[in-house]
Amino acid sequence: MNRFLLPLGAFVLLVVVLAIGVSRAPEKSVIPSALLNRPAPQFLLPQLGSATDFDSRRMQGQWYLLNVWGTWCVGCRTEHDMLLEIQQQGRLPIVGLNWKDEDGAAVQWLQELGNPYAYVALDREGRVAIDWGVYGAPESFLIDPAGVVVYKHVGPITAEVWQREFLTRLPPPAGDGSTPLAVPQLPPVGAVPPAAVAGAGAAS
Amino acid sequence: MNHLTLARPHLSRRARAIWIGLVALLGFGAAGMVLAVDPVELQDPALQARYRSLSHELRCMQCQNQSIADSPVGLAGDLRREVRELLVAGRSDDEIRAWMSERYGDFILFRPTFSWRTAWLWLAPGVLLLLGVGIAVRIVRQRAALAAVAGVEDDDESLT
């Protein structure tokens, strides 16, 4: 009797371990961010549509979404309509981190598909993305008013993900929620600085 | 004799095929080295050696089963650039590993650091080995005891 108990026990243990592994398989490719619950890395980058650099410190004191995107990124196109909807909801501003892209292509993309971003910072060399532990676009970080990374989502944000992972972490909207946030508006994408337009011209 | 001379070329043909296969394999390996994705060399040979070993220790986060030294992906190239710059800036290997895992988590290290979270990773093989040895010793002892008993029985049988 005892002879079979040990192998049986080992077998059951193995089945349990494998079952856990298999049931969690979909999450395997998503690596938890090392930044969770830690201060978001600060950065200073040139921005689209403005002559002055974008300083991430200006986002202190408010909730915001940092969305890593590029025109070369297929998932970003999938996600774009959802980003526009998030911007319409007005719960929080979206800062776009344009990752290893061409300025001209980025401008064209926003002109064609609409601009959900309050600011677009241009990470041409991909250094800021590394500071943020980015390994694939799209990635989105939820940052609280204290500047702490509350949540990171890898892959396109869907309506379901937005509802389940982001809205539940946000404080309830003030008042009836109809008052839009005081988000500084990006100038119309048509009015981009000469440098970016020149870039667009060169790209097309 | 005739049979042997007939068989020989046959054998050697097979041997030749094996040799060709082996050489081809070696060739592919060499080609892989020649086509190494990272052509950048650091000036200082000592730094270059550390750069080599470090970049083999860091995981390419996009492809996950390759090191950043072996991956042609853009991000891997960016991470190699960071490693080079940190080396030139005089950071130690440990500092560079820490720099990486600060941003990408322990997952980026092919050789994870020892911490309470990774303790089971490091200790499990030893524990399992001890367990296996223990079980093996028990089985061998039991078998030996059985064999001794059986041996006595055999002797008894041979006597009768």
Q: What does this 3D model show about the protein?
A:
- The complex is a heterodimer of chains A (204) and B (160).
- In chain A, α4 crosses α7.
- Chain A is elongated and about 80 Å long.
- In chain A, 38% of the residues lie in helices and 16% in strands.
- The C terminus of chain A is likely disordered.
- In chain A, a hairpin with an 8-residue loop joins β1 and β2.
- With 204 residues, chain A is α/β, with parallel strands linked by helices.
- Chain A folds into two domains: 30 residues; 171 residues, Glutaredoxin (3-Layer(aba) Sandwich).
- Chain B is mainly alpha-helical and 160 residues long.
- Chain B has three domains: 35 residues; 73 residues, Cytochrome C biogenesis protein (Helicase, Ruva Protein, domain 3, Orthogonal Bundle), CATH 1.10.8.640; 45 residues.
- Helix content of chain B is 71%, strand content 0%.
- Chain B is flat and about 75 Å long.
- The N terminus of chain B is likely disordered.
- At the A-B interface, α5 of A face α3 and α4 of B.
How do the strands and helices of this protein lay out in sequence?
The complex is a heterodimer of chains A (204) and B (160).
Chain A (H helix, E strand, L loop, with lengths): L1 H22 L1 H4 L15 E2 L8 E2 L8 E6 L4 H16 L4 E6 L3 H11 L5 E5 L3 H5 L7 E5 L5 E6 L4 H9 L26 H10 L1
Chain B lengths: L1 H33 L10 H13 L16 H15 L4 H12 L14 H41 L1
Helix content of chain A: 25-40%
Number of separate helices of chain A? 7
Indicate the percent of residues in helices of chain B.
over 70%
Alpha-carbon distance between the termini of chain A?
A: 78 Å
Number of domains of chain B: 3
The most extensive interface, with participating residues per chain, is:
A-B, 18 and 15 residues
Shape descriptor of chain A = elongated
